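Entry 14. Structure prediction run on the chain below.
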Amino acid sequence: MNKIIVVLFAVLVSLPLAGTLAGIDGADPATENREMAPFPEWKGTWASARDYPAGFERWFGDHFAFRARLIRWYAESRMFVLGVSSSSSVLKGSAGWLFYADDGGIEDYANVEPLASADLASWREALVRAREWLRERGIGYVFSVAPDKATIYPEFVPRSIQPVGTRSRTAQLLAALQDTHVAAVYSRPELIRAKPRERLYFKTDTHWNDRGAWVAYCQIIDAVRQQVPATPPPWSRAELDPVNIEVPGQDLARMLGLARVLHETDLRLIPARPRRARVVEPPGITDPMSEVGRLVTEIADPRLPRAVIFRDSFASRLAPLLSEHFQRAVYLWQNDFDAQAVLEEHPDVVIQEIVSRHLYEFVASPELVPR
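Output returned:
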């Protein structure tokens, strides 16, 4: 009996290697929220020879036979048998909700630690300096904080995680800006009021859906219009048709290897009239939601203002809506203010968007804003 067990174990252990040698690629890029390692390139140089073993190890780790299936089986056993997440980066909530546990997400929800006085002062100085520098050039400025998902749907967060502080870092920052002229947009109160009507965030993704993004977009455009009156008013819900689309599990499900197992409904908003904005950069990209470092949209209407938007991933669902208001909109994937980019684009308004959890991972640098 022991010999049979040893033989079976040896067979199971050797199957991935045997399958790989037989040409079976176990990678499934559609189910993972990252790029898979490429096969290392042999260039006939000492440098490529030195790097080849590590490159091959990375490739084999991502592509060995049956890899995706084994990951899925492990994740399914953890999720559906033990009732826990298979990844420390993903928090399993109730009723099918998943939450991002990295990047300050849990700390942001639990108000683990307030902003240090020096960090709060840096944020205030950076935003005030940006506003003043832009005002001197006749450019409007709107600072927007996107609420993290757990702060909108705390009822689905595991009860084992409870807020330990009474005040969030976002609340600290907004309070520090009250006696300044910085136009700050934080859409959490409006999202809380809107959520009884419809779901505003994905269940298997860390981001808001179209309907949550629309709430924030309306506030951002209203703030822009106060400084740049030529900006058209936000699209109303009557101009956007609600459409429900069944989709595979999104980014958090992919992080678990369960994108093909978990499914949900994407609550979309489809324009009832044609969109005018078109992506002009980078070449070959047509979707304004594309998550690239620099994305530019244009509308052939010189009456419209121009915009520069510093953003993170929460602006992806905002971009199709925001772009309809600007002759040219330049989206730059970065948290820091970039004066040189502004000077090159000559915008009428700058929008700076950041998700609330990044206040745990990022501190603004006032020295980047010229005096």
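The chain has a mean pLDDT of 88.
Filed with the rest of this week's runs.
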